[in-house]
Amino acid sequence: MGLLRRFRGQSAEPAVSPTPAATPTPPPAPGTAGERPYAGTACPSCGVVLDPPPKAKRKCPTCRQPIWVRSGPDGLRHLLAEGDLTAFEAQWTAYRLGQEREQMRRRAVEWAGEDGVARIEAELAAKGPGYTGRDVWWVAANRFCLEALRRGAWQDASHVYFELALQLYREQDEDRSSPQVLKLEAEAAKAELRAYAAQGVKRVDVSGCGCEVCSTGADRVVPITAELQAPRVPHADCELGWCGCSYLAFVE
pTM of this prediction? Predict the structure, then answer.
């Protein structure tokens, strides 16, 4: 508990002891310019105040126990005993998950609005407590895409397909796009072609991403109808991993 309180910037309760009280830990010590201040400068094992506090792992000059120096998500440096490291890392993990959840939720609001996201969260919570911000975003994006397809809003649908593909690409371990990523990219390309066709565009220019594989057939003007039947974008063997080829409207 002492570690958790130090992590949150709270003071730990003093231990009850018949001996005189130990020297209290001073408030967070300021760091030098450009450096994080310390949450406390006392040795986590024996409580001796260190002046100056260590910037990297070292042994306490008094008790000779190792002191680990870690930066926390609270913006402070923390002096930790070896036994504190696991709990401290767990706090970092919880912080990162919270940040990711909030970021994905904000992205979901772009697709579904605040009320829509609240409904999605309620639906997911009813299925189980383990849903993530990514789950909320994914549901919101898919529902927005389905509605865009129903309305024939092809540009909106293309944008969502692209975002879904990009999200999956960022999550995968390999540099080359997975079949699912390529499928979503292809759907984005086809929706973009339909958007052009709805505007009266008959032909498009294939814009390559620059790699040798994608350069073959690039800068060619092709009929939209032919591309809808067999789109050449994206390229599965793109040397860049994520194929950045696209279609540009060709002005007759």
Answer: 0.65
